[in-house]
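DATA SHEET
Item: assembly model
Revision: 1
Owner: S.N.
Input lines:
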Amino acid sequence: MYNRLDKGRKVLSEQPFSVLVGTELSRMDEGQVVMELPLRRDHMQQHGFAHGGVVSYLADNALTYAGGTVLGDVLTLEMKINYTRPAIGDRLIARAEVISSGRTQAVCQCRVFAVNAGTEKLCAVAQGTIVAIPKPD
Amino acid sequence: MYNRLDKGRKVLSEQPFSVLVGTELSRMDEGQVVMELPLRRDHMQQHGFAHGGVVSYLADNALTYAGGTVLGDVLTLEMKINYTRPAIGDRLIARAEVISSGRTQAVCQCRVFAVNAGTEKLCAVAQGTIVAIPKPD
Amino acid sequence: MYNRLDKGRKVLSEQPFSVLVGTELSRMDEGQVVMELPLRRDHMQQHGFAHGGVVSYLADNALTYAGGTVLGDVLTLEMKINYTRPAIGDRLIARAEVISSGRTQAVCQCRVFAVNAGTEKLCAVAQGTIVAIPKPD
Amino acid sequence: MYNRLDKGRKVLSEQPFSVLVGTELSRMDEGQVVMELPLRRDHMQQHGFAHGGVVSYLADNALTYAGGTVLGDVLTLEMKINYTRPAIGDRLIARAEVISSGRTQAVCQCRVFAVNAGTEKLCAVAQGTIVAIPKPD
């Protein structure tokens, strides 16, 4: 009875770390997802920007969800992230998409934006490999 | 009056996100750092493992601190992480080291281990570029 | 007197390795370049596909050229490549673009396609950091 | 009748691109390989250093061979490379090792050194995922 977005939100609510951080799933279509994170003081590093680890967590999670829209149960095998600008603002938005996919793997990319007073600025770009959960190795 | 480890711990205590997550700095020598994270339910994803975002946060932070031991005030320009095994256990340990450094940049590597009942298992390997905080760009 | 494309082709002709490999520069606009490589037997690995090293060379070079369109004299600091499909065909086409740039650095992405009997298929996706050539470090 | 090193050299001799470039396999043990490349003018870019694409080709190939020592027939799924210094000298040496491996995948790391007048200097560090050649996807 769940649609894709509801199911994605349910999984997110079952990730204690995502609940701790406060992640929201805004959109989940085949090959594309949008995740958002309302920023609070808890997310900062010592200079008052969102911690790089918060940005990479959000990128990682968005990549995984994007891959999941085409592969089902998945995990992130690896990812790479470039930080392009300090993440300053009231909200992070991660937009991830599937670039290429096969039966068991997908390559996905993600851009993370910081929203400050209504203006979005790119703060990170990520690329990674998502794999369907394999049989025990 | 602070030694390097005390100073590193002070910076860590000024990162609200690291306080939220519960990160500990165990060792900080020139070119090498060790960070640890006692795992709790808050760090999990839906399958009961530490969330990949927790692992990548810890790797990112350890890489940054390693670079900081040779460069001073730094930030992570980019990083790449391979997850090698689900992070199951009571504690994560990230060991990072400087592989190469110049006046303004360092390439660092990090291995993250999950400690389960006293046994360490490698769960991620990361590599990244740390840069001295630049003049406004 | 040179326009951007002519200048780019001149630099390419001064790279003995690019001459050895046979790389062609098709397009060079601000923030975007296209490089092509007519495939011959010399580019293959043991299974008859273009060697991964040929694909990564082309991606690396296209990323560098893209960064150069906004930064001038540049070099590649780092890059990451995902191979999505064996590179089979008569020609590789690398399309690279600048995603984000500052005064001294740019983050670029590239997609490499294999053209087989007129059909393009994505065979690799790359992302990297291009830097203006720095003062001696 | 072939030992591992002979078999590795045979495969290398069947890669036309490796023959074109002039790659040599010096060592091939379980989990560890060494590849070398005597540098000639053909390998250079416009500043007289080995082209980044030569360095990344060598790193990629060494990673693949390292993974092959534990997995059999393999290909490189993805890799990331940081260039740490211009590759100046008469020879490149790539030392690659398996960091972690399962039934179908291995994470490997590689360091590439330029040998100049008998002195080795690190010029690149790479990390990648090697996979056993899968069934058609």
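QC remark: The mean pLDDT of chain B is 95.
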